[in-house]
Amino acid sequence: MAGDAPSANRNERVDEGTTAAGEQPAPTLAWAREYDPSWQPAFTESTFGALVQVAGDCPRCHHHTAMNFPAVIPSSTVKAAGQVVTMFCKCGLPHEGRPDDDFGCGAYWGAVAEL
Ligand SMILES: [Zn+2]
Ligand SMILES: [Zn+2]
What we know:
Layout: E1 34-35, E2 44-48, E3 51-57, E4 64-70, E5 83-88, E6 107-113
Parallel strand pairs: 1-6
Antiparallel strand pairs: 2-3, 3-4, 5-6
Bound molecules: zinc ion (2 copies).
One zinc ion binds next to loops.
């Protein structure tokens, strides 16, 4: 626990000023399993049959990412609305140092979904 001191972030440059388009692949950010409680991205929910897709831009690498959740969670104690889900970045773009079983930049955050 509590091992997230922002010490040596190698090669992490923040280029401000050109974030209007949103489609441009930013220079690759190194992969890191990161969580920031201030990440509350405004994601869009769409329902596809038995799945709810939550989609938007990753708050860390700003690539487009989407995750699917079952619209009905097979658990009896779940409330119908305002389910907090954990989202992981799955932007699919290469991030340096990424493990084989990950598909994004390593960021994760909580999102409220109406499942
Ligand atoms: Zn990414
Ligand atoms: Zn990301």
